[in-house]
Each structure stands twice: as structure tokens, then as C-alpha cells.
Amino acid sequence: MNQIDKLLAEWHTLTPEDEKEFSKKIASDYADMSDEDKTKFEDEFYAGSVNAGAEAEELIELLTVRNQLDAILPYVSISSIAKEYFGKSRQWLYQRINNSKVNGKPAQFNKDEIRILSKALNEIGKKFQETSISLINT
């Protein structure tokens, strides 16, 4: 565990009252570092911030997909979508919708799978519209 990870782990345990004191401690520790240690610390901090940003973007994308699907999930057959559009099982599709862990990693849609899902929903939507119109015209 690098120095940034240790500080982050400690930061997660702080109460709001302790945060100011913690910030002073970090500033003091940083001031006491050699130029070489400061550079290493800054590099680790930068790498950690890039990684945190990427993780946040993935989480936002996942939550966005899940939230968008929540409104329609009760009305569509996930099993049919999985089989007809992806050639996969219902469980496979639910794993991606719910970001379930598969082999220790979260299952997610890739860009092509998002396009396929969008196409499926468009086609299903058209079927709903056509059925609705035919009911009125009979």
C-alpha cells in the first residue's frame, strides 16, 4: 500500500471534526519531505486521482444505464431480449444491468452491447405502438 492509499484509508475513518487536523498533518508531513519524496508523493496522488476519476465515470455510466432501465423493466421480457438480441441467457443480461460480480469483476455493458440494447428497446417500443394502434383500429 503506497502512502496515498494509507492516507486515504485513514481519511475514510475521520469524523468531520477530525478532518481539519488531518489536513494540517498532511501539510506538515509534506513540508518535511525531501524534494524526491515530494515528487513521488505528487506522482502517487496524481495517479490515484486519475484512477478515482475513471472509477467515478464507470459508476456514473452504470447507474445511468440501470436508472434508465428501471422504468421499463417491469414491462419487457429480459429473457427474450437476452436471447433474441444477444444470444445470451437472462442471467447474463441481468448481470450487466445490475453490475453483478462475475469472476471477481463487475459485469458491464460495452459500447456495442449498449447499442444492441438500444436497438432492442426501439424495436420493442415500435411493437408496443403498433399493437396500441391496431387495438384502436379494430
Description:
With 138 residues, the protein is mostly helical. The protein folds into 2 domains: 1-71; 74-138, no CATH class. Helix content is 76%, strand content 3%. Strands 1-2 form a two-stranded antiparallel ribbon. The protein starts with a helix and ends with a helix.
Q: How many β strands by DSSP?
A: 2
Q: Characterize the biggest β-sheet.
A: 2 strands, antiparallel
Q: Biggest sheet: strands side by side, in what order?
A: 1-2
The domain tally reads 2
Low-confidence stretches: none
Mean pLDDT, nearest integer? Answer: 87
Strand content: under 5%
Which H/E pattern describes the elements? HHHHHEEH
Number of helices: 6
Radius of gyration: 24 Å
Shape type: elongated
Q: Find the structural class using helix and strand composition.
A: mainly alpha
Roughly how many Å apart are the termini? 70 Å
Helical percentage: over 70%
In short, what is this structure?
The protein is mainly α and about 140 residues long.
